[in-house]
Design a protein that fits this description.
homodimer; alpha+beta; 7-stranded mixed sheet; 12 strands; 33% helix
Chain lengths: 320, 320
């Protein structure tokens, strides 16, 4: 039995959805959900870029699933299933640990593995792992990134910056609590919260590359100016122990991998947002204001801050 | 502007479907097609494994799309759209030529680019390119690989083996007509034929790894024995000029990349199959017979042939 066969057999064990056809067919087939819009997203992770070679393989599997489910969350969607593109580099122990982690993650989020492809990469190459997630949302119910209106406030679910500190812990640069390492390695997509928020918001996205850069993308896509109040950005207690000054907050809002939601909503929604925060036991913070015009302004209690040279993580320019 | 931005701008120019949200959102959103089953497939190509470094980038883009559409063809599905996972290795000339080829291929097959992800790979790594294709098929209309019945004949659309000779031409091992090189580099998924055949067949798949291995997978998935008549395998005139003896035919049925369809159908369907062959101007050949039991038998006019050690291309064991 080839290495690929052993790995695929492992995937088959976790594939119980009839649409997956036991991973023995060319494609997955399932009835179109009646009375829904479909939501599709595809994100890939590259070893050394989106995860560290030293990250546990099972955690990488979790992250591959979670970052894609986070995109569904940002559209208020409920997951249907996923297809995976997996690069084998000849380390079958890593592959098996990855498969076990994937099984745990799929089970946790109650998502079906519908199909995919395993391919051989040269053994010394950085692993490339792709995943397509398919979800459903009530018709017209998926918020757009481009829909913010002048006068809308920018809200974020919190906390922000935990994963950035967790990455530094994972790299061995600093010591810190396991909670922050976990925020980096095992992000938690805000699926239920996204579904609750979707009907109330004008625009929504997830924070994958950093609060500033993802908020700026929303402002640009909506053709609006955005002012951000740095002091309002929610930090966890664990992150706050590493500092709450301007430098610490700027580090938090330019770090990626938080997978919190950012969204534009009118102030009139504030009461309902507070109710969602209580029901979902999360923080929802008002961190900014959209207005006519263009450009990003950042300020704190001491005044306007020059925008940092790097707003967040941009693939192709910032190797992590 | 980063390299990634330039490439993404190129992709945006070819993205006109509103569901793609101008590639500026976290996900693609479109209404679920009413009265259809959905079909999903994901195939990846790795440089040096599934395509040659010397293959023109535009042809690689065609192939990435075509191999996935071929999976939809095998399920009788009509394409809706695709999502791409693209690894940037720093050769922006290659990327732009790829993007131009992708635009041509999407236009040829009238398929929408709905979204995806571009990621940075280390510059010296083999490119990894993934694509998810989404299609639709009438309810219950997607043939399964597992559905062959005892007494069914195995049919193939032809010709078989052109791409295998084309690969040898591309590698510079032999000289040969451009038509065969094209069969390797620019495979043509049998979309319309697959849709016409789907209601008539008990099982269907496409030939990606070789006629023998893909037919054997169908027999195994259907828990049946299969006897193949090597003399009935359709060869093109161009391929036949390289030989029609047993060795040449065994080479043809163990070569991959043909992207023809194989299917199991009762002899009673033969008349309707002939009509489809005429209407679609293709060859449909009766090359085998399924029966109770297990195992693959290959024979020609001179008798039974020992199964070759390698039935086709298996990822992870046969680097191309």
């Amino acid at each position: 039995m080839s290495r690929e066969s052993a790995f695929i057999d492992r995937l088959r064990m976790m594939t119980t959805h009839p649409a997956a056809r036991d991973l023995r067919d060319d494609a997955a087939v399932l009835p179109a959900p009646i009375g829904y819009d479909l939501v599709f997203t595809h994100d890939a992770l590259v070893e050394g870029v989106h995860f560290l070679t030293s990250d546990p393989p099972g955690d990488v599997a979790w992250k591959l699933l979670a970052v894609n489910l986070s995109d569904l969350a940002a559209k208020g969607a409920e997951p249907i299933g996923v297809l995976m593109g997996y690069g084998l580099t000849g380390d079958s122990e890593w592959d098996i640990a990855f498969a076990d982690g994937l099984a745990r993650a799929l089970s946790h989020f109650n998502v079906a593995l519908l199909g995919g492809d395993t391919v051989s990469q040269p053994p010394s190459d950085a692993r490339v792992l792709g995943l397509t997630a398919i979800g459903r949302v009530p018709p017209g119910g998926a918020p757009d990134r481009r829909g913010a209106l002048p006068g809308d406030h920018l809200y974020v679910t919190g906390p922000i910056g935990d994963a950035g500190i967790g990455l530094r812990i994972a790299r061995g640069e600093i010591a810190g609590p396991r909670k922050l390492l976990k925020a980096y390695r095992l992000p938690m997509p805000r699926l239920r919260t996204g579904q609750a928020l979707a009907p109330l918001v004008h625009a929504m996205a997830d924070i994958s590359d950093g609060l500033l850069i993802d908020a700026d993308r929303m402002a640009q896509a909506s053709k609006l100016a955005l002012a951000i109040n740095l002091d309002a950005v929610p930090l966890s207690h664990a992150a706050a122990s590493f500092g709450t000054d301007r430098a610490a907050r700027l580090a938090a809002v330019t770090a990626g991998d938080d997978y919190q939601l950012i969204f534009a909503a009118p102030l009139a929604a504030a009461g309902r947002l507070a109710a969602i925060a209580i029901e979902h036991k999360i923080e929802i913070a008002d961190v900014g204001l959209f207005s006519a015009g263009s450009g990003l302004t950042i300020a704190d209690r001491d005044g306007v801050i020059p925008a940092p040279g790097r707003l967040g993580y941009e693939h192709g320019t910032n190797p992590a």
